[in-house]
Amino acid sequence: MSAPDDLSFATLPHAAPVSPERRAELLVDPGFGRVFTDHMVTIRYVEGRGWHDARVEARAPISLDPAAAVLHYAQEIFEGLKAYRTADGGAALFRPEANALRFRRSAERLAMPPLPDAVFVESVKQLVSADRDWIPSSEGGSLYLRPFMIASEVFLGVKPSSEYLYLVIASAVGAYFKGGSETVTVWVSRDQTRAAPGGTGAAKCGGNYAASLRAQAAAVEHGCAQVVFLDAIERRWVEELGGMNIFFVFDDGSMVTPPLSDTILSGITRDSILTLAKADGLTVAERPYSIDDWKADAASGRLREVFACGTAAVITPVGTVRSADGEFSVSDNVAGPVTKRLRSALVDIQRGNAPDPHGWVTRVY
Ligand SMILES: *Cc1c(COP(=O)(O)O)cnc(C)c1O
């Protein structure tokens, strides 16, 4: 059973919100994922009753029974999207319907009940509305929204939970990478993979991240910012980074990105870039690309630019590729013109500084 689309939200404003002075201090240099707003959204689900008790309330610790299913079998999914401060002082969300759809698909894969798309979008709007003063107006700043759902039934048996808790929290974030034209060095994980065919790689679930942390730590140990995962079968095809999709730009102006499958997360930034690149007259092929192609095309000079993309960092240029058997670099480690152009086109739409021909921006009042 699912909720009616008009599930109404009870608003219980925070009794002692952070003062405007303290908030201004926190917003100067918030970093990523450490500064949280005053409120959160909670909605409960019980089998047979459906979604109910939607609230916007003070952000606070939640209490969970130690036998809550999520703590044992990791039945959890999440989303990530941003609200931006618009030039006129308002607020805008970028493609929240796409996150709602992906959340529903992730729920299906993890045997969780679907949250109606309209309820998802409304929950995010409600939180942005309640905490609109927390949206940084600094360049590159935004309010990162984290909707997620956990299995809350008190039972140690292995089966889909019959009770769930959905929440949305918000975190003020600064520019992910300062400067913006510096490339990152990536580590190719040869021994560990992120996702296997038939697994949960295409679902946005915490378990995928738990499985990727060791490889990410190895990347950092080797002086790299991010890890590149190869396919689990041949250990040859480039899939994605730990939390970002990847694009390759060639000397003839064409682009390649790995095709979506059940081992690659369908990024909304990826999808937006495909649309913007095509509108820009670039040809983009969604086709398999191997780590050997990457090395050979970098050596021949045919490969001009590589970038990773995702909501948190938008577009990150990739330079050096390091692995257990050496390293190579693409275009002298500087962000290329196509990377910069696509990033500006996307950011300008997100921030309301450019027309929105694809209907991607949702104003929040
Ligand atoms: C969220 C995520 C992405 C990027 O998706 P966006 O919608 O662009 O933010 C890419 N890969 C993984 C594994 C992710 O979890």
UniProtKB/TrEMBL annotation:
GO terms for molecular function: branched-chain-amino-acid transaminase activity. Belongs to the class-IV pyridoxal-phosphate-dependent aminotransferase family. InterPro entries: Aminotrans_IV (IPR001544), Aminotrans_IV_CS (IPR018300), Aminotransferase-like (IPR036038), B_amino_transII (IPR005786), BCAT-like_C (IPR043132), BCAT-like_N (IPR043131), BCAT_family (IPR033939). The keyword Transferase applies. Pfam families: Aminotran_4. Signal peptide: none annotated. Acts on leucine, isoleucine and valine. It comes from the Bacteria. Its cofactor is pyridoxal 5'-phosphate. This is Branched-chain-amino-acid aminotransferase. Keywords: Amino-acid biosynthesis, Aminotransferase, Branched-chain amino acid biosynthesis, Pyridoxal phosphate, Transferase. CDD domains: BCAT_beta_family (cd01557). Its EC number is 2.6.1.42. It catalyses: L-isoleucine + 2-oxoglutarate = (S)-3-methyl-2-oxopentanoate + L-glutamate; L-leucine + 2-oxoglutarate = 4-methyl-2-oxopentanoate + L-glutamate; L-valine + 2-oxoglutarate = 3-methyl-2-oxobutanoate + L-glutamate. Pathway: Amino-acid biosynthesis; L-valine biosynthesis; L-valine from pyruvate: step 4/4; Amino-acid biosynthesis; L-leucine biosynthesis; L-leucine from 3-methyl-2-oxobutanoate: step 4/4; Amino-acid biosynthesis; L-isoleucine biosynthesis; L-isoleucine from 2-oxobutanoate: step 4/4.
